[in-house]
Each structure stands twice: as C-alpha cells, then as structure tokens.
Design brief:
Blueprint (H helix, E strand, L loop, with lengths): L2 H25 L1 H8 L3 H26 L4 H20 L4 H15 L2 H12 L5 H29 L2 H23 L4 H4 L9 H7 L3 H32 L3 H31 L5 H22 L3 H27 L7 H16 L1 H10 L4 H25 L1 H9 L4
Helix pairs in contact: 1-6, 1-7, 1-8, 1-11, 3-5, 3-6, 3-15, 3-16, 4-5, 4-6, 4-8, 6-15, 7-8, 7-12, 7-14, 11-12, 11-14, 11-15, 11-16, 11-17, 12-14, 13-14, 13-17
Length: 408
C-alpha cells in the first residue's frame, strides 16, 4: 500500500477508537441514571461537558499542531484519552465520571488538528476529499461499535466493562501507530517554519469570510449529529419501549449505515467536481444541508420504528457529505501553513455549539420532547443552507485565490 493511503488506514483505526470512546457514554445514559441517580439535565451535561471542554482547548491544539511534532500529538492524544476512558469505567460516583469526561475532551482535542494536517500534506486537492471520506468512515464504525457493543455489555455484564475494554484497545494500538508514523515520508510531517502558527494567526483566520461560514455550517451540522448520537438511543428506548441493547443498535448502526454511503459519495463527487469548479465542496455541503433538514424532522416525528430508522439512514447519508468535505472545504480557503490551526477553529466553534445538543436534549426530554427539538434543529439546517449559498456566490473565489498565494 502506498504510504499516503497507509497513513489513512492507521489514522482510521485511531479515529474509530476516538469515536467509540465518545459514543459509549451516550448509549449508557439510562444505566448511568440508574447507577448514579442522574437527573435528565445531568445526563445531558454528561454529554455536553465533553464537547465544551473539547472546544475550549481546541485553539491550543490547533496552534500546537502547526508548531510541534504532529506524530507525538497524534500518538500522545490516543494514549491519554484511552487512559481516561478506562478511568471512566472505574468511576466510583457521578462526579468522578464527569471529571473523566472533561479530561477526555482535553486529551481528544489534540488528535484531529494534527491528524488532518498530516492527511492534507499527504494528499493534494485532487484526492483530499476521498482520503478524508475514507478516514471519516471510521467515525461511523466507532459510533456503531461504541453504541451497540456498550449496550450489549451493559445488558449482559456491566456497563463499566465497556469503558475498560475500549480504553485498553486504544493503548494497545498506540505502539504500531507510533512505529508507522516514524517511517512516513518527510513531507507528510513537514511544517512551514517561516510562518509559525500563533494566537494572532488563529484570530486572523476568523477574518476569512468563507472560513467563518465553514465554522457556521460545521457548528450546525455537529449540533445535529450530537443530538442524534446522544439522544436517539434514549428517544427510541422511551418512545418504542425497546430494550437498551436494541435501542443502542438501532441508534448506532442505521444512521452510520447511511453515513458510510454518504461519505464515499460526497467525497468522490467533490474530488471529481473540484477539477471543474473550485467551490465544489461548498456546493456538495449545500446539497447536504438541504437533504438533512427534512430527514432530521422525520426522525423526531416518526410514528413507527421502521419510519424512524429510514429517516435516520437518510439523515446519515447527507451528514456524510458534510463529514467528507468540512475540513477539505476549510483547506480550500486557508493557507497551507495554518491547516491544523484551521481545524482548531472549526473545533472550538463546532464543539462549543454542539455541546448544547446533549444538554438541551436533557432539558427537552420531559418538556417539549426530543422530537420537537429535532424539528427546531431541522429549521436551523435550512437557514444555514442560505448562508452557504451566499458564501459561494459572494466570497469563495476571492478567499480561494488568497489562500493559494505564497506567503513570505
């Protein structure tokens, strides 16, 4: 296998573990409520705290990803977040679990900026969306694995074993990942030492109009994803009176089935269309938002499990378009020397906003209902599609040209 694709394969496994470790707690919310006596709002905070901390530390993670060894950041992040996953399974009380979730957010946030910068160095614009689509499919596998496996373990054994098993897998994988990354071609890990990233450059990126729009659609898309990831298992458990294991499987497997198809369709289409139109990734994402909106509404409004399942599959399909192209679309409008920093920008806004999805879901569960919150979110998707269209027509061409100019 060529080294640029072997890189995707190794990072794929790490990112699958990343999302499995995130997802496991969402499937186990009913079990955690029973063990620790959490209120619905506290359950929401369990999911939100991770995202808020993740977002808060993302500026630092992005800047470090453009200044220091990306190999050390990727492997170190994997080891530390896996350790906190194990500690989550050993938590003696609810407070300890919340602390572990917060520390998981700190440790995981250093992975993505460094990993995306490595991939962007290894893959040019003609293969970048495909490479990221393949890499992002690990998110689908991780969510499905973390969701379905943890539900089964909680039902058959004990919920604590799910955390311990996944954390142990991450620590074991760190050694082969480290050995591989030490052997990759030098340009994979190269950085522009003439324009080192800093807090100032982080702020400068917010002045790029197209990138500001990317932060908006990433925030809305991530909010919708985490609303589904966090609360769909409990929504199905409450609404259709199915078992915890069945709810975890339904909520984890079927949306990811659609996402798998959407990732590859969106990634391959973007790379092909990029040769004809440089704004192709923005157009693909516009289509995705127009498709996600009705699907998200129908998930919450589905009268039967089969109807909800079908809506979840199609929501995952269009969400896959976004996942395949969100980082690549940012790279189309920012200098190459600030790619990790740009991912930090996306993370700080996306994670901070999406952190409200688990929390608001907890508040909505016994009031307006999670289904109604999904309906409101679908309206936000439609509004965001208009913002994306404006960015394409008004700002993209200028921002793309400036990003391609050599910096001295």
């Amino acid at each position: 296998m060529r080294p640029e694709w072997a890189l995707i394969a190794y990072l794929w496994v790490a990112y699958a573990l990343n999302h499995a470790d995130r997802q496991v707690v969402y499937t186990l919310l009913p079990a955690l409520q029973q063990t620790f006596g959490f209120s619905d709002a506290m359950l929401g905070l369990t999911g939100a705290l991770f995202l808020w901390v993740y977002g808060a530390f993302s500026p630092i993670a992005g800047i470090l990803g453009d200044r220091f060894s990306r190999v050390k950041l990727v492997v170190g992040s994997l080891v530390v977040w896996s350790a906190f996953t194990i500690l989550s399974g050993l938590a003696p009380n609810g407070t300890s679990l919340l602390v572990c979730r917060a520390l998981l957010g700190v440790s995981e946030c250093f992975f993505m900026p460094a990993a995306f910068a490595l991939m962007a160095n290894a893959h040019g614009p003609q293969t970048r969306s495909r490479a990221i689509a393949i890499f992002a499919s690990s998110q689908m596998v991780g969510v499905a694995l973390g969701g379905s496996l943890s539900g089964w373990i909680a039902q058959e054994l004990n919920w604590r074993f799910a955390f311990i098993l996944l954390g142990a897998c991450g620590i074991l994988f760190a050694l082969p990942l480290w050995r591989f990354l030490l052997r990759v071609p030098a340009h994979f890990t190269s950085m522009d030492t003439n324009n080192p990233a800093s807090i100032k450059s982080f702020g400068t990126l917010f002045r790029v109009p197209s990138l500001r729009v990317v932060t908006v659609f990433v925030s809305v898309a991530t909010f919708g994803l985490y609303l589904v990831y966090t609360w769909l298992p409990t929504f199905l458990f409450d609404r259709f009176s199915i078992s915890l294991a069945r709810a975890g499987f339904e909520a984890s497997f079927y949306p990811q089935l659609g996402t798998a198809a959407g990732l590859f369709a969106g990634g391959f289409a973007a790379d092909m269309l990029y040769l004809k139109r440089k704004s192709a990734r923005f157009w693909i994402i516009l289509v995705a938002f127009l498709g996600c909106a009705p699907c998200l509404y129908l998930i919450g409004a589905g009268a039967t499990l089969a109807a909800t399942r079908a809506a979840a599959i199609f929501f995952g399909f269009f969400a896959g378009f976004v996942s395949a192209n969100q980082a690549a679309s940012a790279f189309d409008v920012v200098p190459a020397s600030q790619r990790a920093t740009a991912v930090g920008v996306l993370n700080v806004t996306g994670a901070s906003i999406s952190g409200f999805a688990p929390y608001l879901g907890g508040l909505a569960r016994r009031s307006i209902g999670i289904g109604q919150l999904m309906a409101y979110t679908s309206a936000a998707y439609l509004a965001t599609s208009l913002i994306i269209l404006y960015a394409i027509l008004r700002h993209f061409d200028k921002d793309h040209r400036q990003a391609a100019q050599p910096r001295t």
